[in-house]
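A.,

Following up on our hallway conversation. Structure tokens first:
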């Protein structure tokens, strides 16, 4: 037997455990899988593992004994005990040895777990899911990342790393510093790109990422989302200041308004930003985590992210505020087209910060025949996506981010008195 890859996933977590080839790998894997529920085919004289498993005290005890016996030779199996300990008693989960699953299959299995764990009607859940996500996942594979979870993208051996953004490798560049795939200032604690060199990391951190952070600074301060430091962020502009207190109260002051807050104020910051840099930074996030086989199509896009050129034919982004989706950690979902329908964009990003959702096309892919500058070019994707099918009180706002001119950032803030 060659190396074995075991996938474990529940509704709340997932683990991938890789077992390297060795002379006794068959015996080792057989012993591991024998701890789980399995079926015996007496005709074929074969044992097959059941993908659907249930967390029980008996299973936990078996796995703990197995890990104790083998953790010295294979430290990675400690993931097993942490995975099972995070499950509720009686909770269902899946295990797949050496199986490649498509996004739509994972989603369907997630629905099944949800129904089993909650005692719900699976058929109703599947119908609801298909009506919202079916068209999208028939055309796109989906990757999802949350800044709270720990995940490392790319090779683990830094001596073999090649930077995704300059193409250089060791010893020409170093990979000593932790390169956050999404800016740490936005609350990303765990998503790290092993394939971003220290030089590019410093350049982006002092360049395009600062423009996106400034663009989101009002929401950072309002919600008190912490970045590198432990203190709550505050924002002070030319005519205002905003800070969230530890009590949860938000203090918004307008300079020159002694009689209380006006109904509306144009809050001028002290930051100058280029709108194109905001777009560049979000695309940089996507290319930090995208699979290597897809990255090869974005050489022109990488040059643009590196500010080697300006692009005046960028698609518009679509943005809205969804209060129900608020999270203190940023999220990134990526949709990668899995067919040859070039009327659809190759890669689309969905970036979430606080309660903001931003949907954008990653431009300049070799697999795109359109620039998707016109709204109707984007509409075909929009019609098949879940964005057009969710009902919400707020509306999508279309924005053009094609200016490379640095301008002072300002926000229009409206105040409403609630009884």
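Then the amino acids I'd put at each of the 419 positions:
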């Amino acid at each position: 037997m060659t190396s074995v890859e075991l996938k474990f996933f529940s509704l709340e977590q997932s683990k991938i455990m890789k077992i390297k080839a060795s002379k006794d790998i068959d015996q080792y894997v057989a012993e591991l899988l024998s701890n789980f529920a399995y079926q015996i085919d007496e005709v074929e004289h074969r044992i097959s593992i059941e993908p659907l498993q249930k967390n029980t005290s008996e299973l936990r005890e078996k796995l703990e004994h197995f890990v104790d016996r083998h953790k010295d030779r294979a430290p990675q199996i400690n993931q097993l005990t942490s995975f099972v300990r995070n499950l509720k008693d009686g909770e269902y989960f899946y295990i797949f040895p050496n199986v490649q699953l498509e996004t739509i299959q994972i989603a369907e299995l997630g629905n099944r777990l949800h129904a089993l764990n909650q005692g719900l009607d699976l058929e109703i859940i599947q119908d609801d899911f298909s009506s919202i996500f079916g068209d999208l996942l028939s055309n796109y594979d989906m990757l999802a990342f949350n800044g709270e979870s720990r995940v490392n993208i790319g090779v683990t051996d830094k001596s073999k790393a090649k930077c995704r953004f300059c193409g250089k490798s060791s010893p020409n560049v170093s990979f000593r510093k932790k390169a956050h795939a999404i800016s740490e200032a936005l609350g990303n604690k765990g998503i790290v790109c092993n394939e971003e060199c220290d030089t590019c990391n410093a350049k982006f951190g002092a360049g395009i990422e600062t423009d996106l952070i400034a663009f989101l600074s009002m929401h950072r301060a309002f919600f008190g989302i912490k970045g590198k430091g432990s203190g709550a962020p505050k924002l002070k502009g030319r005519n205002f200041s905003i800070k969230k207190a530890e009590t949860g109260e938000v203090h918004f002051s307008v300079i020159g308004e002694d009689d209380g807050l006006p109904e509306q104020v144009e809050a001028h910051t002290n930051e100058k930003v280029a709108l194109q840099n905001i777009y560049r930074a979000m695309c940089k996030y996507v290319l930090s985590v995208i699979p290597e086989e897809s990255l090869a199509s974005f050489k022109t896009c990488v040059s643009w992210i590196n500010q080697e050129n300006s692009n005046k034919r960028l698609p518009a982004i679509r943005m809205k505020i969804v209060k129900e989706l608020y999270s203190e950690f940023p999220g990134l979902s990526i949709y990668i087209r899995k067919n040859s329908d070039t009327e659809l964009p190759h890669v689309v990003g969905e970036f979430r910060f606080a309660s903001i959702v931003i949907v954008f096309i990653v431009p300049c892919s070799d697999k795109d025949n359109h620039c998707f500058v016109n709204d109707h070019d984007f509409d075909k994707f929009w019609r098949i996506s879940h964005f057009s099918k969710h009902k919400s009180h707020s509306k999508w706002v279309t924005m053009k981010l094609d200016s490379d001119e640095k301008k002072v950032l300002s926000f229009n803030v409206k105040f409403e008195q609630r009884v």
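The mean pLDDT is 86. Curious whether your intuition agrees with the design.

B.
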